[in-house]
Model the fold of this input.
Amino acid sequence: DDLDDLFYLPRQTYNHLCGAAPNRKRVVVLGSGWGALSFVRKLDPMYFDVTIVSPRNYFFYTPLLAGVTTSTVKAHSVLEAVRQTKPMPYANFLKAECTSLDPANKLVSLEGHGISVDLPYDHLVCAVGAQPNTFGIPGVQENAMFLKELDHGLAVRHRILDRLERAMIAHAAGRMDEVRRLLSIVVVGGGPTGVEFAAEVADLMNSDLKRSFPVVADQIRLTLVEAQSDLLTMFKKSIGEHVKQHLESVGVTVRTQTMVKSVDDVSIDLNTTAGDSETMDYGLLVWVAGVGARPITKKLAAAFGQSNPRGLEIDQFLRVKGAEENTVFALGDCTVSRNPWTAQVAAQQGKYLARAFRDEEANASLPFEYCHQGTMAYVGEGKSVAVLSPPNLDTVTKGFARV
Done:
């Protein structure tokens, strides 16, 4: 869906030959994920004065994050530096966090490396994503590990190796109960991230660990906990059942209809829908049960008189409700709309909004329409499940009609 760039290429080339236009509109983009980068890569920096603001100076390919935890892929293989991607070097990047917003004066307050700055804008695009949601369950924030950022993946990898090394020492000391606790890995969340992480760890314990840690490899217990009755609820029920059977066949204990009541530093209290209670010891707890709004998202929402705890409310043109028309936009996981929180949605929203800026002066004539292109999840042993959708030619045609 980037073929429309070919039609704009002559104009873009001419703009670059002529240099930056006078009185360019200042576009400030908050974020460096799928939505933000898809947006800025389509903008013409000779026509817009683009500033990207993010505490993370790289984009990373989130579908491969689970593989980072077991070194199936290396971290540097799934990231791309913001300063080395389009529209750089013709745009500006600030490694900072947004702390507040003044809509009346069109100012964004930033803080980075201990320095505060107010950045003016003509258009603001919020694409700050989401953060792990603990649902207020006691002990989760303090004791669980998460899998949302690249740093999380590396931290989980280090924790797995640490638990294996500790288990070797405990085994040498004859403390088998401690060995079993250290090598108990609990994954909470039966969505794509939880399933893929469990699959990656199952691959690891059925191959490399048997060679590297043969003394304790058979003591590893891997448990996947899901509150609902099925895994991968965005797939068909039959696919979720197939995935459950497959994971169990490779050594994963799958506990559906099981909810987490509380967590401490060595154990997790569980409740089933049947009313049974159980305490499970763990050495590693990975929490991938859902996402929620970041604190900055709530601040931005409050600046426009919004109070939805899930994120920024937007209309069908991705404009933030309550903001001056065609001035503040939001996309991706930080928004509340009828679209799911996925990388696929954020990427399409970014491209849609960039076309509106590039071709229609930020005033789109057609609303955003999400074109679902399919869903896939890795389930271990080199296998995956997928539901693929045929291309929506009508949506593509509408895209070309705007060129």
About this structure: The mean pLDDT is 94. The radius of gyration is 23 Å. The longest helix spans residues 150-172. The first strand starts at residue 25 and ends at 30.
